């Protein structure tokens, strides 16, 4: 079911009995002469955390952007097993895409400027998600913004501060609150802790871990930091030059890497 | 054949100042604007003998609508006698032969900035509003190309974000003018800098309203009997300025939009913002045969 182009790569163990939430098959994308993705396939099961590792330029962020429907591939199929969705999501029009992204998919970017309105309040940033989904009651907006910020362990006395006045770790928490405000089926994390110092990074990862445990959110986390992937991911996908070179259970990949590049990656970790 | 033979004889000015092609452009876009209420139509805004930002958009629409039998009223902040209003009005009558008036009920075309007159407009009257910034999405989306996409998708959620933050910061909606309003259930427009008090006057009104921004080169319209609904939260109702209980110290009228006049002793007195309504009320009290038309607000309330 999962197309893997390297003989060395392992088939993901088929332990899950539920059908996958996310299925991507044969996604290719070129930017001019640059091949960003070449026949990439991925599967994510409900409640699972998929880690994507790879060097800079390996196509992992492009893949995440595809999952968030921000870009359309040259070829490929993308499905989410959600009640009222069917067919290839890449065929959706702009309007349907936006509604889907706003209500069913949450994303946390590495750069908070991409995900937040810096000059609006933090609670307003969270409320914006609810507003796009059609919520029009001020009391409900306020309450749910407070709830989401609380769940991402943001200090509530600062909920009306503008993100631009906040520290990097706080900004990531606001992004996280915004992403989980509508209880999305899928949470995408693009290098969520890169650029934070180690102690703040640990706190943010703690929050993510706890959210994952409490709400059983399905997550896809992209990082070049193997430590982050080791902490978070159940299953790992290793990418290089736009291809998936290896995938398997996290322990499997870290203890017994098969592909030459994965071996280098695991051993290069300080 | 000479070129001179092909050209029209020299004239000082076209009728109504604008040349025929400029008027045709405006007429086309005005018809389009009526066809899609509240939708901003880009148009080729011309030079007029006035600086951009002084009402050039409104002036071009008015010049296109004028004919010799027109009666024009021009107001600025509710007053007919301010310099800008007076010079626009005399310019309009000079280039078209239209009659000038201060009386809302007598006018056929009303050009205004900041206010809609307190007396009800009829089906045979046209209101032209001068708009400085026609884009309601500008505070939340600085990229105008994306803003246009948002209009196309009716993606207006972020406009409530402005109201949300005003309530969070100040405890109430602080949007004093240009209150974003949904027209005909489809397009959100900014109704030019009219106060909240005047927005309900556009809802299901008998008259036609044009809103035109000369510098931004956009015009839009509210046709007669069109819904204009200010954006509100479901649990916080729309409120107009609380001027219902104020009394005009000159005319004695009560329940209209007022200007606050600070006094030497630190207190404040109020006078009608719609100056000609005040003049009429004073003349009526002095015994002249002056008729005040029916007003939108009655006893400080807008009947639903």
What does this entry look like structurally?
Chain A has 10 helices and 9 strands. In chain A, the strands form 2 sheets. In chain A, strands 5-6-7-3-8-9 form a 6-stranded mixed beta sheet, with helices on both faces. Chain A has a 3-stranded antiparallel beta sheet with strand order 2-1-4, covered by helices on one side. Chain A starts with 21 loop residues before the first strand and ends with a helix. Chain B has 304 residues and is α/β, with parallel strands linked by helices. Among the domains of chain B are: 168 residues, Rossmann fold (3-Layer(aba) Sandwich), CATH 3.40.50.11310; 41 residues, no CATH class. In chain B, 26% of the residues lie in helices and 16% in strands. Chain B has 7 helices and 12 strands. In chain B, helix 2 crosses helix 3. The longest helix of chain B has 16 residues. Chain B is globular and about 75 Å long. Classes of the chains: A alpha/beta (270), B alpha/beta (304). Chains A and B meet through helix 2, helix 4 and helix 5 of A and helix 6 of B.
Q: Indicate the CATH class of the largest domain in chain A.
A: Alpha Beta
Terminal-residue CA separation of chain B: 67 Å
Could you tell me the radius of gyration of chain A in angstroms? 18 Å
Round the Cα radius of gyration of chain B to an integer and report it: 20 Å
Shape of chain B: globular
Shape-level CATH architecture of the domain at 20-136 and 180-230 in chain B = 3-Layer(aba) Sandwich
- What is the oligomer described by this structure? heterodimer
The percent of residues in helical segments of chain A reads 25-40%
